[in-house]
Amino acid sequence: MGNCLRPVESSSLDKNSSHLSLENYTWNYSYDDDDDSYKLLEDYHILDSAAPCHSCNLLDDSSLPFFILASVLGILASGAVLYALFRSLFHWQLCPSWPILAQLAVGSTLFSIVVPILAPGLNSTHSTILCSLGYGVWYSSAFAQALLIGCHACLGPKLGTGQIRGLTLGLTVGVWGAALLLGLPITLATDTSYGLCTLEYSRGLGALHSTHAAVCFCIFILLPLGLLGAKGLKKALDRGPGPSINVLWVWFIFWWPHGMVLGFDSLVRAKVLLLPTCMAQQILDVMLHLAEALAMLHCVVSPLLVALFCHQATRASLPSLPLPARRSSHPDTFEGKSSLSSHLST
To answer: What is the mean pLDDT of the chain?
Structure first.
């Protein structure tokens, strides 16, 4: 990220300085007849831009414990939520559209699994194919979670009542298929450098990075803003409540800065926006690293948001259900108790 990924040694700078070519500099000599003197006009802008601008890499080898901790906590939290959903614990299967919520936990699990692949400090495990797979799963799982939250906000009641047959299956195939396609550009633009998984900006891959930045901006920025706008418009026109806003929307807080900063960085690399100083470039690089670290933390928070949403939904729906319906949500538990009691009686 930024102008340099690794610090440049002073010896290499000294060696390169002896081979500095002045062919690209413009020297303009003008002769003044009055004082018979030459005036040397230098292009200070080119000379200033030739100076190296070194940024501090926050996510270097020292950040490996952060990657490992986020991965372990994310896997444990997502696994616990998936176990609670599929084992009918806490009446969570009464939660509206719980299969969609389970897919959010699956997406968080996939993200947590590939975090160590992209972690710095594990140089021996990095290969181009593994890095491409890691970045592909990294962003595809994030795109899928964002699309699932958007679909849940718009289709939550229909998914819960089962009015449309096969809607959940079709939605699952469509969302994950679209997420894989949206993650394809970043998968193709990944390479390894100095044992690190990096994004390759050379070899004519600028179009892939611009496409990836545009996708991130649309999914992480425009999608929640569009849903909020649709809700406000429908409420203003008195045409229904619109998309539902719940605790799951906290997920976008972790990815919104990443989509914003990545889009800005793409404009800078395409020279649509020009940074005036080296300090501005360094600040942009630091913001990229901070946004990536914040986005990584979603794998720990996302399953907790799913658990909180299911707890709130089932707590609101349980008092309105008759007693047989409540018992039916725990078939395994009651069957286990009945079999145990019959065994003891014999």
So the answer is: 76
